[in-house]
Amino acid sequence: VQLQACGGGLVQTGGSLRLSCAASGIIFSRYIMSWYRQAPGKERELVAFINTAGTAWFSDSVKGRFTISRDNAKKTVYLQMNSLNNDDTAVYYCRGRIGSAEGYWGQGTQVTVSS
Fold first, then answer.
1. Which tens digit of pLDDT belongs to each residue from 34-87?
2. How is 54-96 classified by DSSP, letter by letter?
């Protein structure tokens, strides 16, 4: 099983990035797909998830700025991040799980927002 996250980078305040997480070795359509992030010195936090029916949830800190989507045919989940600010600087991780199981984690992709 592998979750390969990519799309991070350096962006200016107010800019946008789209993260992708491609899965292999799992029946992707059965998994709840999530994005987490961890900023330096802080705990990892849940940013957004999308369930198997396509229903999404967002943390208050990103609601209205981020969207999450999935393409089951491509086994990929996306995180579109708009209006980025310094607080969004973090390593972003994708996770796939079924129910309350731990599931699988991707390796992380760095997002740095500079002013």
1. 999 999 999 999 999 999 999 999 999 999 999 999 999 999 999 999 999 999
2. S-EEE-TTTTTTEEEEEETTTTEEEEEE-S--GGG-EEEEEEE
